[in-house]
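#struct-pred
JK: can someone run the complex with heme C? inputs below
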Amino acid sequence: MSSEKRMWTAIILILAILLVLVVGGEIRNGLAAAQLSKNATGGPTSADRTTAEGSAATPGTAQAPEIQKPKPDLSNVPDGPEGEAIKYGYELMNKTNTLLPDYVGNRLSCSSCHANGGMDDTSPYLGVAAVFPQYIARSGKVITLEDRINGCFMRSMNGKPLPYNSDEMRAMVAYLTFISEGVPVGIKERPWIQKNRIDAYRNMAEPNLAEGEQLYQQACAACHGQNGEGTGPTTGPALWGPDSFNVGAGIARIGTMAGYIKRNMPLGEMGGIKQGGLTEEQAVNLAAYILSHDRPDFEPKVKDWPNGDAPDDAAYITEAELNKGFDPNTAPWYKGYAERAIKAARAAGGAK
Ligand code: HEC
Ligand code: HEC
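RT: done, structure tokens with the ligand placed:
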């Protein structure tokens, strides 16, 4: 072989080796991505887990990350200013109305709905810092975690938005980031989050308010008060009236309220009913009874769902829907339910 020929053979050999390396890497990356999306949607099956462990044991093979439900432990926060902010954020979640009276317009704390600062299963925030910024149909745009927090300040807390640069906002974000540790930024689904939603209202001709009231007195009033006025933000938050969430809040939607009740209430056991023991219909009747009372209004609500895609159980009718030709008179009973209750109560002279 001439020296020129040998040189060409060597070059071709090197190119061939490079090609094998590149293509092999692509395939492994593809497998890793497939594994990641499988875990993100369905959660790992035992078969997936074996594969992941198997590949971990083989050095040099790409390891597919498993998305685990975070198990935050506040006794593990770092020392120093960051840890202080995380602990302050947790305190703000639990004592929101007393620590931030200028920004909260009712007698609720964030933990009134997101129990134990969103670490318990009622309405959890675990991983929330990884899924924002996110497109929210109600806003009609991509919003940040701070925007989402302020959504609950203005609606669920019937208050004012917290300044983005305040120590309090930073602390809340630091806390939410801490309890999201280990969740990869940008995932779409958190398998451990069960939405507080029930669709049973769609199959019901009308809610049975008498049954709702009877169940309320039996299993709820001891903690939430005879008149829904509440006994305290973390013992039994106000469910209607001036100390409760306003009509713009997510939980003012009948499907959300019913879902929350079905999964989480009564807390423990009350009046012979255990947590999780209500039927879906009973939960809808309770939700309708609770939402049939007067509560604070939220004027900017008409601008919600600006693309005209408000859900069928939205608590009020939006401008965008009306512009699209939506006729409230032909709507089912659950559409705009809370808004009608407020109007009726005020027309009857209960106005504030
Ligand atoms: C009256 C009940 C209620 C109160 C009080 C409340 N929230 Fe919410 N919050 C909700 C509901 C309902 C949702 C929507 C959950 C869903 O999409 O299923 C929500 C969603 C959120 C989300 C987005 C969660 C996610 O996983 O996408 C954040 C963040 C949040 N709330 C923060 C707060 C903060 C901070 C406070 C206190 C300032 C607060 N909330 C008070 C009911 C409440
Ligand atoms: C033993 C006391 C207790 C009983 C009984 C109880 N709750 Fe609650 N409820 C709470 C507490 C405490 C919270 C705050 C969240 C948490 O800690 O889980 C809460 C939160 C709520 C919320 C969300 C907060 C809000 O202001 O909207 C709703 C809705 C609710 N309860 C409805 C009901 C209904 C309906 C029943 C009866 C079927 C009921 N609860 C029975 C204690 C109770």
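RT: quick notes.
The radius of gyration is 26 Å.
The pocket of heme C (ligand 1) is lined by residues 96, 108, 110, 112-114, 123, 125, 128, 148-149, 152-153, 156-157, 172, 195-196, 245, 249-251, 256 (CB under 6 Å).
JK: thanks, will look after standup
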